[in-house]
Write a structure and sequence with these properties.
Layout (H helix, E strand, L loop, with lengths): L2 H35 L5 H10 L1 E4 L2 E4 L1 H9 L3 E6 L5 E4 L13 H9 L1 E2 L2 E7 L3 E6 L15 H5 L1 H41 L14 H55 L5 H31 L8 E4 H15 L7 E3 L9 E4 L1 H17 L7 E8 L3 E8 L6 H9 L17 H12 L3 E6 L5 E8 L1
Parallel strand pairs: 9-11
Antiparallel strand pairs: 1-2, 3-4, 3-7, 5-6, 6-7, 8-10, 11-12, 12-14, 13-14
Helix pairs in contact: 1-6, 6-7, 7-8, 8-12, 9-10, 10-12
Length: 462
């Protein structure tokens, strides 16, 4: 569900940026419109200029020709009122007949802030009079009573900010109200997507604006469930087949081993025949071990091998395996050295004792199998910081090349490989060791031994 808050933040961010962009665009448009309203200057400025252009002579008052041309170009009429008498002492030729020629003080006050016969008027003060300019009726709109409370004007910036904030809040609330249903629909969709990888069935309600996506997720879940079921059937059938074949082979193999052992121990037979019987016994035992390994590897691979986890002393378990191998090595061809620190007597872990013994046995047997001329085997148990313990089995035998070690560490075993393989990369012993380590949440690393041979390290959590 971490994606839903991110989605909401993204939506809110886009909303806020959009609102801010709209405000900026509105202010820009307002500024452009305001700037284009008076391309030739303010009417009040024009009135002041007209008043300054009035000249008095013996024949009366006269306006400059340039100002008359400017007023005519805008279809503006003008009258000049004497301050003393309130009478019109000059007017333009285009003065409408409805415009009065005498003005009282109240008339002049109304004219200054309003209209004359529907014409918006603007005044300018001359030396001894007042000029009135009348613009066309549809050119300007004037507010007749421009009076405002002082506190209102003083608080206007704050008021504007509050109004803008309220507008943004209202837009946000409208947006959230409109998308609440969508956001509620997103949650089960994201939960369903996250649940797909767990292998659990996913069933979403196919309704709302995201019904099509929910339907696709349900279909995907059904396909995955079907595939998992078929895969489990194949895995179970494979494991059962291996177990069945192993069981069927054991009985005749036991008979072969029994008769071969009798022939090997029969002193009445020639030595050559007894040696052949010994080879049969040895190879039969090898085949039996291979069948057991194959059966165990199959069960571990498909989680069919029951594990009995309990607290065990790893030192005691590994030492017992070492002692068993020492007792079996009558010829002394494969001596084993115990390199565990003498001060380390106890390492308690949660593990299956029998599986750990099997893993260590496989590693020691692996050194024996690959060194026919004999070798010294070194076994050690280590503990690091009370969190990790390591079982290290190494030898001074023939070892392996870098390429072989890389394959042992990284290439999948032929038994669990999903690609065609024309060669058996290695036996089942190391595969079982890796599977046992994985069952205990551990790892296995194969490398060159400091003694010249091969070294395998099992790392397990304490």
């Amino acid at each position: 569900m971490k994606s839903v808050p991110k989605l909401i933040k993204r939506f809110v961010g886009i909303l806020m940026l959009s609102s801010l962009l709209i405000l900026v665009i509105n202010f820009a448009v307002l500024a452009i419109i305001t700037a284009t309203q008076a391309p030739n200057g303010s009417p009040w400025t024009t009135a002041e200029q007209a008043a300054e252009s009035m000249e008095k002579s013996e024949q009366g008052y006269k306006m400059s020709d340039e100002m008359i041309e400017e007023l005519n170009a805008q279809n503006v009429w003008a009258v000049y009122i004497d301050n003393a008498t309130g009478e019109c002492v000059w007017h333009s030729d285009n003065l409408p007949d409805t415009v009065p020629l005498e003005y009282t003080a109240s008339d002049i006050a109304n004219t200054t802030r309003g209209y004359i016969d529907g014409y918006p008027t603007f005044t300018g003060e001359g030396e001894d009079g007042l000029i009135i300019l009348g613009y066309p009726r549809d050119s300007y709109w004037k507010h007749m009573w421009p009076s405002w409370d002082y506190q209102f004007i003083a608080n206007l910036p704050k008021t504007i900010l509050i109004v803008l904030a309220l507008n943004v809040l209202i837009i946000f609330l409208i947006y959230m109200a409109a998308n609440t249903k969508l956001l509620k629909s997103v949650k089960p969709i994201t939960d369903g997507i996250q649940a797909l990888h767990t292998g659990q069935p996913v069933v979403l309600k196919e309704k709302g604006v995201l019904s099509e996506i929910a339907a696709n997720i349900n279909q995907t879940s059904e396909v995955l469930q079907s595939q998992n079921y078929q895969l489990k059937k194949k895995e179970t059938a494979r494991a059962n087949w291996i177990a069945g074949v192993s069981h069927d082979i054991r009985t005749p193999l036991s008979m072969v081993m029994g008769y071969a052992s009798q022939l090997e121990s029969n002193k009445q037979l020639p030595e050559e025949e007894r040696q052949k019987a010994a080879v049969i016994v040895k190879q039969s035992q090898r085949m039996k071990n291979l069948i057991n390994d194959l059966n165990l590897a199959s069960k571990l691979e498909y989680n069919m091998q029951p594990t009995h986890i309990a607290q065990v002393n790893l030192i005691s378990v590994v030492r017992q395996v070492v002692v068993d191998f020492i007792n079996l090595d009558i010829s002394g061809k494969y001596p084993i050295e115990w390199l565990t620190d003498s001060n380390l007597n106890t390492v308690i872990i949660n593990a299956d004792k029998d599986l750990i013994k099997r893993a260590v046995s496989n590693l020691i047997q692996n050194s024996i199998n690959h060194n026919e001329n004999g070798c010294t085997i070194y076994v050690a148990v280590k503990e690091e910081h009370g969190k990790v313990c390591k079982i290290v089995v190494s030898d001074n035998g023939v070892g392996a090349t870098d390429e072989q070690i890389d394959k042992l560490n990284n290439s999948p075993h032929y038994m669990v490989c999903d690609e065609n393989t024309s060669e058996q990369r290695h036996g089942l012993g190391l595969l079982i060791v890796k599977q046992i380590a994985a069952a205990h949440k551990g790892t296995v690393e194969i490398r060159h031994s400091e003694y010249g041979g091969l070294e395998v390290e099992i790392c397990l959590p304490v």
